[in-house]
Amino acid sequence: MARWMPLRPRTSMWMCTLMLAASPISTAMAAETQAPGRADAMPSAMTIHIPIPVTPLAELYGNINREVATHRHRGREWIALGGGSGYLKYRLWPDEQSSTTAGDRLLSHSTVPFGVEYAKQIKGAITKIADCGQRDASTGTGRLSVTVATMFKQARSYAILPASQVSAVQSAQSCLLSEQGVDASPLMAQVYRSNLLEVLPVVDRKAAGLVTVKPAVARIWHDLQEPLLLDETEHLWLLLNPEATAAAGVEALSGTPAAGYGVLARPTVVRGSKPTSRHIPLPEPHDQFGHDGFHVDFTLQMPIEEANQRLREAVIGQEWSLGVGTIKIVNATLYPLGNQVGVELILRGLLPLTLRLKGTPAYDDSTGRILFREVDYTIKERTPATDLAEEWLHEPLREELASRLSLPIREELNLMRQALEKGLNRDLTGGRLRGTVRELSLEDLAVQAESLSVRFKTAGTLRYDARADVAAP
To answer: b or e along 359-389 (b: 16 or more beta carbons within 10 Å of the residue's beta carbon)?
Structure first.
């Protein structure tokens, strides 16, 4: 049976794992805590990121010069310039190429050597009148500096569609036409850009066949259905219980474009032997992902005698003066009271009184304590003396009790946060799970006949970053 003991250095971590215990852990509830997450668990959102394999894409876009040359040969060799009085024919030499990634895109850079022939229409015939760079790449060739940016769009069935655009086509080296000495590079840059724009959609379609991330998503989906051990000693397991996915955009992951997918889950924490893994097939992704954070609720039921012991250690011995005499708390006991918490206090001093208090529990982050709001009380003993005390002292006594009645819990919450973050940051078969706990709060506290039920809520983020080789072809 779970126990909430006074916090001591030797029991601090034990306390933390205790408070991560699953919803009711009594014998009667054991079957429920072994089962996968309930449908009424709070929905959570997390993201997975899968690196897009850019190596085969870099090779494909690095050879775009060849695609342009092939495309040009399929058309007319002579290109009419301006009003048709001048004509240009070009030749491309093997280029120098490289690629880099910048954020969510692939940048393909190339230096393209070229040679051109210039002609005019004379007496109805196209007649060559000048050329440059036609013999070999080292003799008079011009050079263009070309940059193509390839972005990535998410489509149905986890498809990734490359979409490229021309970032720059600039003259890097002059190509002087014989005799006239005119530089043909600016004109060649315009012609090459135009041809490149015609070729890019064809190359993008070829590139789409090289990018397959669905097998990687399926592998990660399988990972997310496996129970995660939070604490071996206390046998605590986190079940993420993923239910649905949605496209979440493309962003950089370790300098490489990565496809993001949101996952809707209903995480729960259970205690006992390892739960059975789920085997839900990977669903089709929705179009848009609404990210509202990752949440986990933890519910703990403590035996009422242990809860009373905790309360007594916090309040017994407190003593104060009301002006006409001193009052001291000598005992305290919790009792059920619907949505509120009832506390029976035995006081000694000015008058021996037994008070039955009621209040609404709330966690105060500034003090790290469970406080009781809207506190009021009745006196159990009804005598002329207690009636007189009630008439004169009710309000000041109520205010004093409201300020003194509390349960310290900050250190336990901090330990719980640390244990949860440790459990949410680990290596899995396909990558790394990364979690943060930004908020941890008390949601509900209710006294029952045999136990004290405490429910905590965590709010934070969770993401799964796949390894670079997971989506490699």
So the answer is: bebebeeeebbbbbeebebebeeeeeebeeb
